[in-house]
């Protein structure tokens, strides 16, 4: 069919419409992602009105300009005064249009974007399109008819699965689910959408409203799917607000007429909007994008990144090698001798063998990946690599010796990175002839899985090296957070402090099991003592011994962990730590002998144990975390409070729906956090020193959010 010449276009804010033959083409152009802000909603409503009024228009086509159809509601508007027209009203206007409306989808059609498409009468998607209802990830439910239209269109079970997982479906899957009517062949859906609309006009096709679709015809199957989802949600989404609201809204689709179902959806949506979980999750959404905007990523371009070297094939070196191999980079590993190199290679292979055993990788795919891996005991193997990450023993002398070798062999401009957890990277940089090339890349264990990458910026590093760190994170699909040099950078420095708060509570009367339970009930997957057992108590023990000489003799020091380690109880790997792990079990059981050790330590320290409520445990735990977080921001170790939040969300299992520790503190109220710290300081003024930043913010009546503007 020939493409008719377009008529002059009319713009209504970011929405333009023009006639092409019989079809009124409505284009949404609201960069970067065509979010449905108030101007778009107004423009869409006006475009539909215009199409209705235009007797020459026989059909309407809705398309998005740029890379996406529509990414959904404008998330920035949530929590602000609502502006008319609302999105459900716009969707209803589209659905009620008397002329067939076609949505031609390319890129993302997510949330409200898919809801617009579901309100259209016919849908076509480009092969690369992504469709989904991801509102659950923001603490919301699809609030523009998604909970009522999707089940009617594709059935309760798949609709609930999409809404509760929040995942994006590809166009092919969308076709098989019945979400779309036609799969296009081109990446840009506009031309094929126009042809589709013309075809519908030629065939005199009727309007076809999703509200009248037959997806709920089998009531029994729908009811069974709903009840299964309810049971599953109760189990898997414990503590989360919006998933059960999604189930309730879909129940409305089953039991109520469409308009009443829409009213129920609205009511439940507004409850979600008001929930602090919505605020926490949306903070997390923006924070994880803000961390990418470090000063160096704006001022400099990354250096080339086509090959990598790793020094050390232990826990971290092997994990980092896998992360790099998975990103398609060729990797050269250097170890100190042949047996260690063989172990390093075996560590890498073990990861892929595990995937093969689970059926998630074929032996051929493993062979292809391992073909990019090479090993050597000579640093000369690094002569041509673009970046080297050092992951050898945590000792300054060993690190400096390695960097001297790197200085000797690496090509000019190669990035020289250390994965040190605590050591002074300025000192490492100063020991070689090219300090401008030295940066910290602090991965988290297991490095091929954990998303966080702290990019530690020493004083002399050049901006393009830091930018290369961010580029590497992108290649490795990690979340980078810029950190300054100090003992433990952002994450481990703060961890050291709240871990002490936990130890103090343990000595004062709370059992490690009570503390772990309180932390889990707060939303963490594990408590701090379970984490110690998983990581291995020997690591922390070695650090404590190393730092013993420099410890403030006046500061409180709880010795329980030392007593446990002295017995050789290092956690899961020795089947005993704070918990017992009978026959290698991964979930521990409380150990009466550990409780006896704690009792003995209380006697030695002259402490009469008292009881702690869960609420007090969390108040102390969080106050310690937030106070040190404030110090880290004050000293510019973290650029903003949100960088602390992202560190904890991606490196330490902090519950996402609370947004991160600094966002949590804002939610609780900084005056309350400060009052807690001052109260706790009465008994231990050395440990509990209010951060000057916290004090200043409280005096100014400000919060951490006020410091979150981009640098
Ligand atoms: N509202 C406002 N801004 C948004 C947005 C939205 N829905 N989606 C993305 N943005 C912004 C981002 O913050 C970012 O801004 P920045 O450049 O200033 O940092 C910019 O758009 C580009 O986003 P990304 O960096 O994420 O771009 P990508 O190309 O990597 O990804 C995307 C594109 C897949 C669309 C991704 O942005 C995304 O997943 N967006 C959110 C989708 C979503 O959750 N939609 C549901 C919204 S809630 C809803 O619709 C409620 C309704 O049911 C009533
Ligand atoms: P590990 O002990 O498992 O591995 C260290 C490896 O380095 C060993 O295989 C050893 O043979 C090799 N090695 C030592 N000296 C070498 C030399 N001169 N040349 C070449 N290879 C040498 O240690 P792990 O846990 O992998 O830690 C490595 C580094 O990563 C440390 O700096 C540590 O602080 C840091 N780190 C550790 C994390 C963890 O959870 N284990 C997390 C983040 C960072």
TrEMBL record:
Gene3D superfamilies: 1.10.1040.50, 2-enoyl-CoA Hydratase, Chain A, domain 1, NAD(P)-binding Rossmann-like Domain. It is found in: Peroxisome. InterPro entries: 3-OHacyl-CoA_DH_NAD-bd (IPR006176), 3HC_DH_C (IPR006108), 6-PGluconate_DH-like_C_sf (IPR008927), ClpP/crotonase-like_dom_sf (IPR029045), Enoyl-CoA_hyd/isom_CS (IPR018376), Enoyl-CoA_hydra/iso (IPR001753), NAD(P)-bd_dom_sf (IPR036291). Pathway: Lipid metabolism; fatty acid beta-oxidation. The keyword Ubl conjugation does not apply. Keywords: Fatty acid metabolism, Isomerase, Lipid degradation, Lipid metabolism, Lyase, Multifunctional enzyme, NAD, Oxidoreductase, Peroxisome. The keyword Zinc does not apply. Its EC number is 1.1.1.35. Residues 488-581 form the 3-hydroxyacyl-CoA dehydrogenase C-terminal domain. PANTHER family: 3-HYDROXYACYL-COA DEHYROGENASE (PTHR23309), PEROXISOMAL BIFUNCTIONAL ENZYME (PTHR23309:SF49). In the N-terminal section; belongs to the enoyl-CoA hydratase/isomerase family. Belongs to the enoyl-CoA hydratase/isomerase family. This is 3-hydroxyacyl-CoA dehydrogenase. It comes from Variovorax boronicumulans.
């Amino acid at each position: 069919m020939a493409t008719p010449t377009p008529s002059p276009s009319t713009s209504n804010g970011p929405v333009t419409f023009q006639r092409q033959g019989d079809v009124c083409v409505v284009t949404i152009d609201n960069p970067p992602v065509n979010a449905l802000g108030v101007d778009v909603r107004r423009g869409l409503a006006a475009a539909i009105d215009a199409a209705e009024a235009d007797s020459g228009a026989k059909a309407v086509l809705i398309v998005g300009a740029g890379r996406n159809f529509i990414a959904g509601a404008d998330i920035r508007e949530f929590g602000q005064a609502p502006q008319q027209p609302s999105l459900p009203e716009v969707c209803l206007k589209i659905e009620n249009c008397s002329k067939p409306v076609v949505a031609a989808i390319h890129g993302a059609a997510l949330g409200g974007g898919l809801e617009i498409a579901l309100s259209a009468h016919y849908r076509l998607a480009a092969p690369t399109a992504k469709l989904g209802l991801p509102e659950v990830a923001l603490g919301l439910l699809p609030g523009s008819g998604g909970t009522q239209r999707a089940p009617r269109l594709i059935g309760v079970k798949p609709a609930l699965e999409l809404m509760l997982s929040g995942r994006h479906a590809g166009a092919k899957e969308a076709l098989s689910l019945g979400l779309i009517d036609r799969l296009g062949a081109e990446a840009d859906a506009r031309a094929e959408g126009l042809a589709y609309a013309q075809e519908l006009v030629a065939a005199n096709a009727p309007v076809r409203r999703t509200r009248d679709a037959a997806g709920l015809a089998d009531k029994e199957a729908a009811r069974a799917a709903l009840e299964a989802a309810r049971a599953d949600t109760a189990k898997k989404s414990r503590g989360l607000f919006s998933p059960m609201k999604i189930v309730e809204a879909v129940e409305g689709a089953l039991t109520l007429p469409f308009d009443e179902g829409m009213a129920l959806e609205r009511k439940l949506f507004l409850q979600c909007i008001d929930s602090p979980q919505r605020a926490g999750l949306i903070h997390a959404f923006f924070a994880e994008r803000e961390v990418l905007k470090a000063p160096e990523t704006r001022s400099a371009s990354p250096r080339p990144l086509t090959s990598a070297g790793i020094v050390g094939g232990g826990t971290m070196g092997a994990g980092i090698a896998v992360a790099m191999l998975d990103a398609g980079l060729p990797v050269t590993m250097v170890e100190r001798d042949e047996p260690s190199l063989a172990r390093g290679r075996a560590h890498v292979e073990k990861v892929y063998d595990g995937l093969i055993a689970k059926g998630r990788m074929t032996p051929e795919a493993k062979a292809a990946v391992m073909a990019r891996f090479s090993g050597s005991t000579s640093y000369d193997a690094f002569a041509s690599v673009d970046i080297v990450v050092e992951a050898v023993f945590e000792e300054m002398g060993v690190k400096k010796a390695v960097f001297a070798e790197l200085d000797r062999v690496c090509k000019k401009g190669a990035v020289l990175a250390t994965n040190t957890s605590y050591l002074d990277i300025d000192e490492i940089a100063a020991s070689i002839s090219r300090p401008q090339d030295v940066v910290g890349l602090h991965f988290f264990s297991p490095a091929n899985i954990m998303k966080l990458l702290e990019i530690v910026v020493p004083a002399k590093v050049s901006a393009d090296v830091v930018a290369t760190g961010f580029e590497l994170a992108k290649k490795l699909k990690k979340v980078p957070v810029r950190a300054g040099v100090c003992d433990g950078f952002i994450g481990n420095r703060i961890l050291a402090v709240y871990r002490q708060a936990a130890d103090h509570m343990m000595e004062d009367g709370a059992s490690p099991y009570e503390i772990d339970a309180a932390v889990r009930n707060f939303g963490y997957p594990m408590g701090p003592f379970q984490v110690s057992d998983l990581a291995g108590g020997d690591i922390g023990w070695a650090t404590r011994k190393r730092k013993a000489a420099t410890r403030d003799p006046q500061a409180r020091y709880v010795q329980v962990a030392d007593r446990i380690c002295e017995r050789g109880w290092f956690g899961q790997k020795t089947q005993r730590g704070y918990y017992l792990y009978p026959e290698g079990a991964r979930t521990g059981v409380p150990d009466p002998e550990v409780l006896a050790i704690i009792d003995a330590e209380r006697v030695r320290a002259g402490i009469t144990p008292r009881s702690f409520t869960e609420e007090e445990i969390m108040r102390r735990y969080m106050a310690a975390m937030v106070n040190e977080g404030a110090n880290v921001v004050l000293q510019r170790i973290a650029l903003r409070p949100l960088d602390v939040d992202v560190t904890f969300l991606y490196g330490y299992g902090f519950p996402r729906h609370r947004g991160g520790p600094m966002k949590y503190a804002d939610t609780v109220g900084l005056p309350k956090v400060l009052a807690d710290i001052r109260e706790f300081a009465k008994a231990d003024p050395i440990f509990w020193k209010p951060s000057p930043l916290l004090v200043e913010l409280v005096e100014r009546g400000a919060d951490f959010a006020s410091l979150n503007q981009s640098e």
